[in-house]
Amino acid sequence: MDLDQPTVPLTGDVRMPLLGFGTWQATGEAGYDAVLAALDARYRHIDTATMYGNEKEVGRAIRESGLRREDLFITTKLPPDRVGRERQTIEASLAALDTDHVDLWLIHWPPSAPGDSIPVWREMLAARDENLTRAVGVSNYSVSQIDELIQATEETPAVNQIRWSPSLYDRQVHAAHRDRGVVLEGYSPFRTSDLSDPVLVRIAQAHDVSPAQVVLRWHIDHEIVVIPKSVTPDRIRVNADVFGFSLTAEEMRDIDALGRSG
Ligand SMILES: NC(=O)c1ccc[n+]([C@@H]2O[C@H](COP(=O)([O-])OP(=O)(O)OC[C@H]3O[C@@H](n4cnc5c(N)ncnc54)[C@H](OP(=O)(O)O)[C@@H]3O)[C@@H](O)[C@H]2O)c1
């Protein structure tokens, strides 16, 4: 991947851009327009899912952008009710996205029957071994649920995508992922933030940026992947403009302190 944005290494030679573009609730033409605008604003990592019902629009936007497939990082996710139909599901994702592989395939939520998690994980690993995806991981898993997968298969999920933001910051959860070699990917950075929080506003003013940009930069400086969503062209651009400043150690500590264990 030829990219001047920060990335985090996953397994092998796979590198994941720390900034991605979220697409939940960005469907139909609005979804297509948003992804095209995001690629134009230099996002190179797109987060979708079977459940979002927009893989076709994401695929069309990628095609129309004219960018090379190898310069993009695409994540999609397996809905937990597809137990036993994993292969069919990724084939449908690849057809809709119009690509022969994704970069990351995640189990969207732990299956409701706890015994199903390990067979699903084995199917994910099989898809990776067949090069349908370059890396595999999970979403909405607890650390103990991740440990069950590792114990059963000796294969560590490359990524766990969970709700994350300054107000949800938990140093121990972050460290537990790092200790296992699992990259933490945060979702809903704005939905779970108070963008009028005085700490965020003060730090934003100090850098002449918005509190939303501070939230995104805080993830990146912690080496946590972040995937803001917007269908608004100005916001799409501003949310990608987070590489022209960085936060001081003191500012990072002040933002951490907004969380549960800051
Ligand atoms: N794995 C999972 O279970 C899971 C669950 C939820 C989300 N996700 C992923 O994470 C992505 C992001 O999470 P999310 O969509 O829940 O929420 P989010 O990115 O935290 O917030 C999106 C909302 O914030 C608004 N917004 C965007 N930029 C803004 C800015 N600069 N200032 C103020 N408001 C702004 C958007 O409005 P407009 O669109 O109107 O501009 C939208 O209403 C999703 O799209 C999806 O890809 C994964």
Report on the structure:
41% of the residues lie in helices and 16% in strands. The protein contains ten helices and ten strands. The strands form two sheets. An eight-stranded parallel beta sheet has the order 3-4-5-6-7-8-9-10. Strands 1-2 form a two-stranded antiparallel sheet. It starts with 6 loop residues before the first strand and ends in a 6-residue tail after the last helix. Bound molecules: NADP nicotinamide-adenine-dinucleotide phosphate (NAP). The site of NADP nicotinamide-adenine-dinucleotide phosphate (NAP) has 23 residues, from helix 9.
Summarize the structure.
This is Aldo/keto reductase. This protein is of the alpha/beta class. The protein has helices spanning 28-40, 55-65, 86-97, 117-129, 143-153, 171-180, 198-207, 211-221, 233-240, 249-256, and strands at residues 7-9, 15-17, 21-22, 45-47, 73-78, 102-107, 133-139, 159-163, 183-187, 225-226.
Which keywords apply here?
single chain, 262 residues, alpha/beta, eight-stranded parallel beta sheet, two-stranded antiparallel sheet, 10 helices, 10 strands, globular, binds NADP nicotinamide-adenine-dinucleotide phosphate
Which small-molecule ligands are present, each listed once? Answer: NADP nicotinamide-adenine-dinucleotide phosphate
Distance between the termini: 34 Å
> Tally the helices: what do you get?
10
Please count the beta strands (DSSP E, at least 2 residues each).
10
Classification by helices and strands: alpha/beta
Largest sheet: 8 strands, parallel
Shape descriptor: globular
Strand order across the biggest sheet? 3-4-5-6-7-8-9-10
* Poorly predicted tracts of residues: none
Q: Give, in order, the helices and strands.
A: EEEHEHEHEHEHEHEHHEHH
- Amount of helix: 40-55%
Rg for CA atoms = 18 Å
The percentage of residues in β strands lies in 15-25%
